Amino acid sequence: MPARLPDFGPKRQQDEREQAMQYDSVNSFLRSGMPTLSKGPIALIFAEDEVEVESTIRHHLNLGFAALVAFMPTEFTLSDDLAERIHRVTLTCAPRTVVFDTINTMIASAPTRWMYYCYNAEYLFFPFCETRTIGEMLAFHTEERRDAMLTHVVDLYADDLAAFPNGVAPDRAMLDRSGYHAHTRHKPDGHPVERQLDMSGGLRWRFEDHIPYERRRIDRIGLFKSRKGLTLRSDHTFNTQEYNTYSCPWHHNLTAAICSFRAAKALKSNAGSTFEIPSFQWRNSVAFEWTSNQLLDLGLIEPGQWF
């Protein structure tokens, strides 16, 4: 991995039995690529632009995913060592509904597999991920009779927008240490939904005037087990309500974080906001240490019974 991102222990190689290839469409991958993959967990990475694509892929390979599928246009470049370790599928990830349609196609084609999805310049962290693999963690989570995991999208941003005008700087990343809020989620009839919360915070909260209301939440069910009839909706929730819960009824469960430059990129690329934001820093900004311990200390991820 690049020096600016931590090396989580011994290098974790993708299963050599899974031959990495390039596919010219999602349908082509489903016909010939998907059947070659192991049972999972499978990482699905959607590259909306070329910002930090390689560091995103390297980070998730290092977490121990059995397979990684990267969706991106043909003009995006990848180094040879990465191209040999992933399944690359040609896809333009716009409009945003394309991503959800693709994930739902993957769900329908491969039931009962653990999957994870994110965008480029996003990085998954779970408790003790420096010494434990994603497979180990999901095996434990499955034993707890959980088929999905809540992930909080924690906004990252550059410390100096004059030096990094797109808001992205992994080796000088900042995050908010406070300002996160949980709101009870309600049914259409006004009654609260059991064990579900709408989370807010980070850049989407501090610069809410520039963020559409429906995109201000920072909760995402980023890890889930596919099954027949399951559908991911455009608000990052599923049609099966138990998948949207943060824990089982008996005790707290694991949660994870997706540390993301995506909001920073959007705010600095949008003509309506970029000139009104000279800096993302405020009194509660702290340097991101690229460790799960920091996220645990800040209460942004939960270990549950995972020791």
Question: Key features?
Answer:
307 residues; alpha/beta; 9-stranded mixed sheet; 8 helices; 14 strands; 23% strand
Give a short summary of the structure.
With 307 residues, the protein is of the alpha/beta class. The protein contains eight helices and 14 strands. The protein has helices at residues 26-33, 53-62, 80-83, 97-109, 134-143, 202-206, 262-269, 292-297; strands spanning 22-23, 42-46, 67-72, 87-90, 114-119, 122-125, 148-155, 157-158, 173-176, 181-186, 192-200, 219-225, 256-260, 285-287.
Explain what you see:
The protein has one domain. The protein is 21% helix and 23% strand. Strand 10 and strand 11 (192-200) form a beta hairpin. It is globular and about 50 Å long. It is α/β, with parallel strands linked by helices and 307 residues long. The chain has a 9-stranded mixed beta sheet with strand order 1-4-3-2-5-12-7-13-6. Strands 8-9-14 form a 3-stranded antiparallel beta sheet. The model is unreliable at 8-18 (pLDDT under 50). The protein has helices spanning 26-33, 53-62, 80-83, 97-109, 134-143, 202-206, 262-269, 292-297; strands spanning 22-23, 42-46, 67-72, 87-90, 114-119, 122-125, 148-155, 157-158, 173-176, 181-186, 192-200, 219-225, 256-260, 285-287. The chain contains 8 helices and 14 strands. It starts with 21 loop residues before the first strand and ends in a 10-residue tail after the last helix.
